[in-house]
Amino acid sequence: MLSVHAETAYPASAPGARVRLIEFAPFLRECGVSLTVRSTLTDAEYAKVISPGPAGGKARVLGSAALRLSNRHRVEDGRLFLLHRLRFLFPLPGIDPPARLDIYDFDDALFVGSTMDGNRNFAWLKREAERWHTYTRRSRLVLAGNSYLASRAMEHCQWVEVVPSCVDPSIQPVRVHEDRETVRIGWIGSRSTVPYLSQLLPLFQTLHDGGRKFELVIVGGGDITSAPWARTQAWTKEGESAFLAGLDLGIMPLPDDPWTRGKCGFKLLQYFSAGVPAVASPVGVNREIVGTERGLLASSDQEWLDALDQLIRDVETRRQMGENARRFVEDEFSYQRWAPRLADLLSTL
Questions:
Q1: What phi and psi, each to the nearest 5 degrees, are found at residue 300?
Q2: pLDDT value at residue 123
Q3: What is the pTM of this model?
Q4: CA 131, CA 83: separation in Å to the nearest integer?
Q5: pLDDT at position 30, please?
Q6: pLDDT averaged over every residue in the chain
Q7: Half-sphere exposure of 274 (CA within 13 A, CB side)
Q8: Domain with CATH 3.40.50.2000 in the chain
Q9: pLDDT bucket at 72, cuts 50 / 70 / 90
Q10: For 122, which of 18, 63, 339, 344 is 20 to 30 Å away at the CA?
Q11: Which residues are CB-neighbours of 226 under 8 A, at least 6 positions away?
């Protein structure tokens, strides 16, 4: 059994660590790789840090976590060392960036630096872009979530491989598409990405005013609207599967900029695993994930209106696209598909 020790600043409640490390581990074990994951921050600490609370409380949490990491940062000999994204939320001399790094894994355009309003105030402290360059230069192997990210990493590391974010369709119930009086449209994300959705809300109001019957369910984005056609709910791991299986249509709007081009399309994979088609912005990997058989791409307001209107009205198209989408993730974006490939890469290393 090949032993790989993985570290990340982020706990299981953060999607990147959960999807790219924690949920990959049992599939890798079946392929002869023991992947142990150690998060620097606990779920409670991470929730505190990303909350809108006072900076003093966040500083105390980070200070405690930094001390804990400094006391146990060494990796045992004989184990490959994999780092996902960041080891800590800000640099720690001699610890982060680490001097020894076998594998570096990332799924966002960290080389762009902090882009969200809440993060820009701390950009001078996090220094994400600077640390990303150090990680990629020091790594023997870099794992990138898509080809756009890989192309940037190739400027600094000789061995770069694309390993996409994956889903496990085998545990996801599939939506049964039927004629319904009210079509349920879903968006799943976080407070950091909900601004992308906010720009679409006037279009949903237009559809509602035009007589279309739908419900927009927003998961993880907070209370961003009080419209009668919208409902918000908190994300939970336990409730995610049922939420996806209850959708008729998923959406993934994005602006086109250097940060969003690095997105790995995970929302789309979640929808597709439940046999749910999607409407998405043609940004980055969204183009190749959606294609022409699993959903519709939309750029302008009119294209979004037309695409949403078409799929709200046409249950048969939703059903066929949903079937195509489910097969697609099983064949191209499942843990079952990628675990043997990743195990081979790690074994070669």
A1: -80, 165
A2: 60
A3: 0.93
A4: 12
A5: 98
A6: 94
A7: 24
A8: 2-166+335-348, 170-332
A9: confident
A10: 18
A11: none
